[in-house]
Write a structure and sequence with these properties.
Strand order of the largest sheet: 1-2
Helix content: 55-70%
Largest sheet: 2 strands, antiparallel
Number of helices: 4
Number of strands: 2
Distance between the termini: 44 Å
Oligomer: single chain
Strand content: under 5%
Length: about 110
């Protein structure tokens, strides 16, 4: 069997579902964050790459998780993009570890 190659582009609907946000929020963020520019087809259909999705995750972390206003998040990204991206990756890792620990605790509680 041939392996399924990685998907290169994702629709706005797929990205919105993956991030648990609305499509209109993604379109709004495109107007507020100049570096977020998904490819558009001739009929103006947005095509997001993995890199675009990573940018959205960073924006989501700043605005939705950490509670920054749009202007403050944009300023942080302009002044210290690398630091913000690293911080977002650390946060994702910590959340993943927390979830794994919760599952382990649930499993261990079931053994007692």
């Amino acid at each position: 069997m041939a392996e399924n190659p990685r998907k290169l582009y994702f629709s706005i609907k797929e990205v919105a579902q993956q991030m648990n946000v609305t499509e209109s929020l993604l379109r709004y963020w495109e107007t507020e964050f100049p570096h977020l520019r998904p490819k558009t087809t001739g009929n103006r259909v947005r095509q997001y790459t993995e890199k675009d999705i990573e940018q959205i995750k960073v924006i989501y972390n700043l605005v939705k998780v950490r509670g920054f206003k749009i202007a403050a998040a944009r300023k942080m990204l302009q002044e210290n993009r690398n630091g913000v991206e690293k911080s977002q990756k650390v946060m994702e890792t910590l959340i993943s570890v927390r979830d794994q620990l919760k599952e382990l605790k649930k499993h261990l509680d079931g053994l007692v």
